Amino acid sequence: MKKFVIKILVNAVGLYVASIVVKSGIAFQGTGFQLVWTVLLVALIFGLVNTFIRPLVKLFSFGILLLTLGLFTFIINALMLLLTSKISDHFAVRFHVQNFGYALLGSLIITAVSLILHAVLPDEKRK
């Protein structure tokens, strides 16, 4: 459970940083605590999408992943971010990704932030 909460918090930071860097294409609406809850809720949705849907998409695109030496993973990550945006819209959560290009850029930023935070955060496996 602790690992899941840490993943959600790391995703939240990554999503927020992506919304700051890609201001015109990725947006959260709200201020103060409403913004914090929105970011955390979107991070939860993003975590669930990445947990349940992303593995299926990777399984069905295994041939393309092999052919592109894994670079198609960036496309899959962008699609998961777009899906998170659509699910958030459906549940009236104020998060929007404008198009695929912004989703691709945002997914690259989220991946970079996640890698940095996971390298900095303590891990029981490394002890």
Topology:
Blueprint (H helix, E strand, L loop, with lengths): L1 H20 L4 E3 L3 H21 L1 H7 L1 H6 L4 H19 L4 E3 L2 H21 L7
Antiparallel strand pairs: 1-2
What does this structure look like?
74% of the residues lie in helices and 5% in strands. It has helices spanning 2-21, 32-52, 54-60, 62-67, 72-90, 100-120; strands spanning 26-28, 95-97. With 127 residues, the chain is mainly α. Helix 1 (2-21) packs across helix 2 (32-52), helix 1 crosses helix 6 and helix 5 packs across helix 6. The protein has one domain (2-126). The protein has six helices and two strands, in the order H-E-H-H-H-H-E-H.
Q: Keywords for this structure?
A:
two-stranded antiparallel sheet, 127 residues, single chain, 5% strand, 6 helices, 74% helix, mainly alpha, 2 strands
In short:
By secondary structure, the protein is mostly helical. The protein is built from six helices and two strands. The protein has one domain (2-126).
What is the radius of gyration computed over CA atoms, rounded to a whole number of angstroms?
A: 15 Å
Stretches with pLDDT under 50, minimum 5 residues? none
Q: What would you call the quaternary organization?
A: single chain
**Distance separating the two termini:** 19 Å
Major beta sheet, strand line-up: 1-2
SSE order: HEHHHHEH
Which structural category fits the helices and strands?
mainly alpha
Shape descriptor: globular
Query: Fraction of residues in helices?
Result: over 70%
User: What share of the residues does DSSP label as strand, in percent?
Assistant: under 5%
Mean pLDDT: 93
